[in-house]
Specification:
By secondary structure, the protein is an alpha+beta fold. The protein has a single domain, classed as Penicillin V Acylase, Chain A (4-Layer Sandwich), CATH 3.60.60. The chain is 30% helix and 28% strand. The protein is built from ten helices and 17 strands. Strands 1, 4, 5, 6, 7, 8, 9, 10, 11 and 17 form a ten-stranded mixed β-sheet that branches. Strands 2, 3, 12, 13, 14, 15 and 16 form a seven-stranded antiparallel β-sheet that branches.
Length: 350
């Protein structure tokens, strides 16, 4: 077993200042050191065009571009370097797992991926220059893998495949843009239909009204369905699915077998986080091990989070935080059944 951690990043202010603060935190960090070494030994499978990227951010998330400029100043990098590391546009993505289950008042999500990609940051950010406040873990620093905003919109995404990529945003930046710019599920669905997608993912969204929508999105289009269970395959766009889906169907069947009509949020959380229920995964070497379990309660304005399995969640009162009361939690600890290195904790992660 390996002890891991996520740092709590709290900030109120402009996007530019938020980017600058994060850049300063990352200086001399394992995360940045490892990422820079990784770029030296692998060829980027994408193109960078600063002018084009700025134009696309201008259409969907102009304030996040200001955040990238803050990184640029803090790190003294070129904008090409900032876009390669933090831009979230036109990037490549590996395979991963993930499971999502929702009720009328909760969204529970297992994040399954490889430890060497996990950066150990849980962010709570309230912009003062536009956009909604968001709570949730970050991915590639600027992106959000799941989360909830001040309006009560909760979101999580599931990997489908990376065949036939297109020009567009990757999943974590799309998640960030959804949470920061959309007030409810209808706005989220509309955006997910419009925004350009680099790869194929399912995006699950829930708001205070209690209905869940799943957007099956690809570079070639998007379809919308209603369901409260999502793993790693499309239901409508079945022709887009990968050939090997046994694990995805197995986790979906486990969710279906364990659910019951009166299941509350804690019972649903245990269904995903308990290691003996068939949903939590220990396939870390296969890029599909469960690293964290998140839960969001739009009507209560609360978020739960835990690293590893068989653990009780740390509870954040997002409503209180929005009123100006910072959380006293500085770092979250957990245990995972792997000895693989984590990018934010270990040196020389390849």
């Amino acid at each position: 077993m390996k002890q891991i951690y996520s740092d709590i990043i709290q900030f109120r202010g402009s996007h530019y200042e938020f980017g600058k603060m994060q850049g300063e935190l990352l200086q001399d960090s394992f995360t940045l050191e490892n990422r820079q070494k990784q770029w030296k030994i692998r060829r980027p499978r994408f193109d960078l065009n600063v002018k084009e990227a700025k134009e696309v951010f201008g259409m969907f998330a102009p304030r996040i571009w200001e955040e990238l400029k803050g990184f640029q100043e803090a790190l003294n990098w070129t904008m090409e370097e900032v876009l390669q590391e933090f831009g979230g546009y036109r990037l490549e993505y590996k395979k991963s797992g993930c499971s999502i289950f929702t009720g009328s008042d909760y969204l529970i999500r297992n994040y399954d991926y490889h430890p060497k990609t996990y950066e150990g940051r849980y962010t709570i950010y309230q912009p003062d220059d536009g956009g909604y406040a968001v709570i949730g873990p970050s991915q590639r620093i600027t992106g959000r893998m799941d989360g909830m905003n001040e309006k009560g919109l909760a979101m999580g995404y599931n990997f489908i495949h990376r065949k036939k990529p297109g020009d567009g945003f990757i999943c974590n930046m799309i998640g960030r843009i959804v949470l920061e710019t959309c007030a409810d599920v209808q706005e989220a669905v509309d955006l997910l239909r419009e925004i350009p997608h680099r790869h194929s993912f399912s995006y699950t969204v829930l708001d205070k009204e209690g209905e869940t929508f799943i957007v099956e999105a690809t570079p070639r289009g998007a379809e919308v369905r209603q369901s409260n269970v999502c793993t790693n395959h499309f239901e409508i766009l079945a022709d887009e699915n990968r050939h090997h889906l046994e694990d995805s169907y197995k986790r979906m069947q486990a969710l279906e077998a364990n659910r019951h009509p009166e299941m509350d949020g804690y019972q649903a959380f245990r269904m995903l986080n308990d290691t003996g229920r068939g949903v939590f995964s220990d396939k870390y070497k296969q890029w599909a091990g469960t690293i964290h379990t998140s839960a969001y309660f739009p009507k209560q304005g609360k978020a739960w989070f835990v690293l590893g399995g068989d653990r009780d969640p740390v509870i954040f009162d997002f409503n209180e935080w929005l009123e100006g009361k910072n959380t006293s939690v500085k770092r979250l600890l957990g245990w995972v059944d792997t000895e693989l290195p984590f990018v934010h904790m270990d040196a020389n992660v390849r």
